[in-house]
Amino acid sequence: MTQHFGRGRDSLADIVTDRRFLVRLLSWLVVLIPAAWGAAHAVAESLSLLF
Amino acid sequence: MGLTDVLDRSRCIAPANHDRWRMPPAALAIYLAIGQVFALSTLTAPFTRLIGVSSSAPQDWSASAVSWLFPVAITFLGISAFVFSRWIDAVGPRKAMFASASCFAAGFLITAVGARMHIIGLVYFGYGVVGGTGLGLGYASPVTALIRWFPDRPAAATGLAIAGFAGGALVGQPFAQMLLDYFSSATDTGVVSALVTMGVSYFAFMMFGVFTIRLPEPGWTPASYTSARREAEDGGHWAPRVGTPAGRSDAERRPVAKDVHVTVATRTRQFWLLALIVGLSVAAGAGVLSQASPAIQDLFPGMLGAAAAAGFIAVLALTDTFGRALWAAWTDGIGRRRAFLLYLSLSAALLAYAPTAAATPSIVAYVTCVALALAMCGGLLAALPAYVRDLFGDLHVGPIHARLLIAWSAGAVAGPALGTLIRKFQLAGGVTSADSYRWTIYAMAGLLVIALIANWLLRAVDPRHHFQPTEPTGTAGGGRR
Asked: A with B: how many residue pairs have Cβ under 8 Å apart?
């Protein structure tokens, strides 16, 4: 991903077909999706402090 | 190929071009799962009405009997991390994380059986002992891998991962509530089905971490991390490790100057000062957090209800999660000792000012003070593995950090108990309820001041404790590896 973005001349197709980038992205999504779901619940609950 | 082979340490060693940015998600999968322990109250609330279902029956367990589950689990977190510290290092992160997932999931299943049969001892054994052991193994397992993959930014890496431990409560609370809502009926609290589902789900989630985690080859460093920078950072600690063939277990690699063996490290003043800092920081944070909900309602009478207090807890959980990652990462820039001095003094000052802010009365100022102070305490814990590496080298950073977790668990149990004791003492002396919370907060700020002094006393480890190059590899620092 760094190489792609660093060179700044690859197409979107090059980026999304970069296996290394996709594996890294998927790895992060596996943990960030549940974390974001939990954080969204906490944000919604914390709003009760304001309203 | 059997499961044991797949989990073996030798199969964890990654090729030199492996993507290190896949390691924080692997660790996060473990920390997000075991952080569920902070949302335990959602899951255990139905334990007090297993027979009565809609309300507690006389034969049901009392709330006080169930409330001991959290301290038991946290106690076993510390004990298991301490006892298995060397084993975790010897078998590698993959096998240790698998053991953690197995214990954590088995804890849920045994607890479900205990709830179904209405045997409270089985519940304590399940979630407290077996599940608590899973917590300790899980907390300690990914540390070595993270430190070795990120020698250039160790606290940023561990901070990002350990933030998941606080974030686990954010996930665990709505997850447990969703399952309880789904499985409950007029004749069933739904807690048994919820426990089984959680055990299976968390096990599957943790398996992602188990099969993603890798260790770098011995001697591997990122391309951007030059030997000149290493020398500048710590005076040669990161000297290349010679004599270890690539791809071999790093159990066979030679320690270098400034590495301290775990058995030697636990006899140093630095270890005990770090343990004091960890224990007191956790005690202060846990002590404030355990009374946060009733305290804010008493400190702002007529201004805040139970729903707003729950919102305050959510704010604390959010700032603790993000604070761990951010405050820990900052220590890579300004240095661990200086950062700890700054965080401990600021968090003590913020906590000491919080009651004054409440007297103003300013809800925003009070919430900001408490949230920032707790986030800084969390940041200290998230940066702890990097501090251990700074002091003792990276040879046994995992086991030494694991042994410090016993201070973590002692603080997590003692902090809330001390808070309750202070409050009871104050109330018995005729102090108002709101004032009793003020004194509890002052006491917790006092604990942070003691931790600040301990950090001020920390100096580099005496060279006589360092690994001697003349010693055989397996007996670095006078003990067996």
From this structure: 75
